Amino acid sequence: MNRKRKLLFTIVRSLVAILIALLVATVLIFISTPGATFRIRIDATFEALREMLAGPVFRFSKKNGMVFEGKRLADIFAAMIPTIFTGLSVCVMFSANQFNLGAEGGIMLGAFVSAMAAIYLPLLAGLHAVVAVLLGGVATALVMLLPALLKAKLDVSEMVCSLMLNYIIMYIIKFLMNFYLADKSRGTIQSFPFRESSAIAPIVNNPVFSGAKLTWGFIIALVAVLVCGLFMYRSRWGYTIRMIGINKDFAKYSGMKVGMIIVLAQLIGGFLAGTGGGIEMLGRYNAFAWNALPGYGWAGITIAILAGNNPYMVPLAAFFMAYLSKGCDLMATYAKVPSQLISIIQVVIFLLFSAEQFLSAYRQKLVVETAQEELALAQAQKEGV
User: Is the entire prediction scored with pTM above 0.85?
Assistant: First the structure.
């Protein structure tokens, strides 16, 4: 199957999975919607769907009807920043067939290290944020050496190791915050305030974007997408990572250093997750107050699956997830429908994308069409000769 048809299959598969997930959500909304009659529940269901599908960028009122809200769109872009980085992190690791789930703990560790650098390192404005974020990324990459080396040297399951590592990171951070690093003058467990020099500035200094916390981290995230795409599809290292993911044994017998590449993929994944955590922390918060895993890593897994492990598709998948999350929150607020529907939709999408036989007949049809075109072209060239 050629590249054009592969892209077509990926797009169709994604759209069908999303439509099925939304259909399941519609049924669940109808079931959970209060109402004495069938008509009332139908109307309530359509109102909930309107809030979920259009509410993230439009405000509804009886007087003005449907009005575009720039603030809501900016909120969606801001919410994409950490999940773009975790999506890229998972894409790189999954491309090497390494089911490392450490992006969740990685983004928390990156945020914590960057926060400590923002508090205790006296640096100039501009440089301070860069150094803090890089320290968060490097620290997370080094921690990801543990599951990477265990996998490469002892063939320990990176999935189990990284999953447990998430909670080790979380509880170590909670311990440090509770006993050593918290600002005791506050009513909650949080760090001392960040230095002003460490803040990541908003893209545009106006009430819409500043209120949404849409910072230059969004632009950095898009640059990271471009760099990751070039690395994965235009570099020797990226080709090696993808080859190991496709056929590890073939890569090994071709002379590729499989162990080193496994470690490299997980180091890059850890750096991306930690960098995303640092950018999110310094762009959105004034002090570190995370007392649990933030959920961005789990969202990154769904985003990577939606993107088909293609870094260039990660922003679209992140936008879809951020849009849907915002829609579910508005639906819960205005239509009295549980916002937990986002989790159900994510699960349905995950199951459909992880099912190898999902739309396999359509894929086979595209393969046959490609083969027929190649045979026809070969025949025409032969007759021309």
Answer: yes
